[in-house]
Amino acid sequence: MKCAPTQTPVDVDIPSLREKYRLERERRLRKDGQTQYFRPAGDVAANYAADPHTPVEPRAPISEDLDVVILGAGWGGIMAAYHLTQAGVTRFRNVDTAGDFGGVWYWNRYPGIQCDNESYCYLPLLEEMGFMPSKKFADGWEIYEYARSIAAKFGFADKALFHTHIHSLRWDEQLDRWHVGTHRGDDIRARFVIMACGVLNMPKLPGIAGLDQFKGKIFHTARWDYDYTGGSYREPVLDKLGDKRVAIVGTGATAIQAVPYLGKHAKHLYVVQRTPSSVDERPNPPTDPAWATSLQPGWQKQRQANFHRAAMEFLAPGEADLICDIWTEITRNLAAELEAEGWPQLTPAEFVARREVIDYRVMERLRQRVAAIVKDEEAAEALKPYYRFLCKRPLSSDEFYPTFNRSNVDLIDVSETKGLQKLTEKGFIANGREYEVDCIIFASGFEVTSDLDRRWGIDVVAGRGGRSIYEHWADGYETLHGTMTHDFPNQFYVGYIQGGLNASVTEQFGEQGHHIAYIIGEALKRGATVVEPSKEAQDAYVKRFRELEIDLSEFQGSCPPGYFNNEGESRPKWALFRGWGPGWDAFQKMVREWREKGDMEGLVLKS
User: Fold this and answer.
1) pTM: predicted TM-score of the whole model, two decimal places
2) Are the CB atoms for 477 and 484 separated by under 8 Å?
3) How many other CB atoms are there within 10 angstroms of residue 288's CB atom?
4) CB 483 within 8 A of CB 492
5) pLDDT digits (tens, 9 = 90+) for 451-481
6) How far is 563 from 13, CA to CA, in rounded Å?
7) What does the alpha-carbon distance between residue 219 and residue 135 come to, in Å, rounded to a whole number?
8) Using an 8 Å Cβ cutoff, are 136 and 119 in contact?
9) Pick from 192, 234, 62, 204: nearest CA to 524
10) CB contact at 8 A, 37 and 220
11) Cα-Cα-Cα-Cα dihedral of 501, 505, 511, 514, to 10°?
């Protein structure tokens, strides 16, 4: 069945909305940018870094030589390990601070956690694993268990070092190896290192005055404390909150899933919001067995490609939208309009202008959805998103907005003061008023686009001649294919790093892992001890990348502060959306042809 376009308002005053968007952005901007968040120290850090899910087992320090160390055991690390295994490279370890595989799905176990784009695209290797998610938006526990099952099936589950923090990486020019130092006293000498540190790996706390003064309970959603709230990961009945006044700080992807549970169980809930999210409806039916049986080999790659085109590019004439949700609505609606017009030839500028109109209409539909559900007019107005689609992560929930109709739930809008003013012994101060609470939960997100040292959390990454990667990339990434950089031999990168950009993070990480595994596998086959981009090849690639790059500065500069634009920067150097200009398919074609040539062009191999 063809997915129909949505019904959106037609009479939208775009010039007035554009000015409204600008004003809403301006009043939320802070001069301190990313420094408004801090890395905890002392007792706060100890509580913040502790693993509430798995006891830390003591072990003796390890001294060993390996072919590869993979930093991370989330999706980036899992996909790197999978592709290494497929390439015949088996002497490797994943190293992670967590207690198991899963990455963000290991740490995040807050009530209501689910995938927020569809599982059939997000979960990688479904056909290879013979697995089908139970529903469109899978629960967190199902995703976590699936991640672990990949490691088990492909034979690298027992190789990992968990509860291990890497504090130093130093290139040894005598050994042609990386010294991997950890807080456990390990000295691992790795021929190659893959930096698969993740995107949502480093939680952050807002630097609020008085954080150390509050006498109640504080925790981050990525370290959910069920001993305090009651309930469990799979059964989030938060029965210990019946006599508790709770505040949750943030209304992003995490909060919109957790807030309904807190509102249901807490004596009173304060939801503290700086910038609202856009929240659409969330139909989440169980997987239809008949549909699953009907799927032909290759279905997941086809579906992922369709999702990418519908979410980030365009649908070709006659191409159906297979996903049919908030992520693909703008493209689907535009395709329907163009189809009705006989698919007119549009210049790129005309296409962008037409898409922008649909953007404003969809966002107005979402604001009208708030007004139709939330009964309190003041709260409803504060919850309306006044910005362009993709300024913040698009979300969906059938329970979030109705929660604000409960008598025990209050929305505290702190857009005027750009956040909480301070914490006190008894609670917090917002808009000049003190609110007494027993518990403060930070749904304040992760170090997604902040500076590299904040995100990786590794004290020393020293390449050739002791050069620091943080100095090397002081002005942003410089790579070959987004996976290697000159002066850091045998080091590889997985993430949003100067390469192809895909709507599905797991698909992007998987293709990066495939490319990296090819290079490592070929180096080992050819007896090379060192592989590194030449300066000339790297410079040529960076020049071409920048020539082809789509300038998003105007769009980013129009968005409210958040992690997409590193708290309001117009050209954030670590932005998620800086991809290969001609698109994902063009980038994959380029690197595939590079591999097929077999001459490792642009890389210098030393035996």
Assistant:
1) 0.94
2) no
3) 9
4) yes
5) 777 778 889 999 999 999 999 998 889 999 9
6) 28
7) 30
8) yes
9) 192
10) no
11) 140
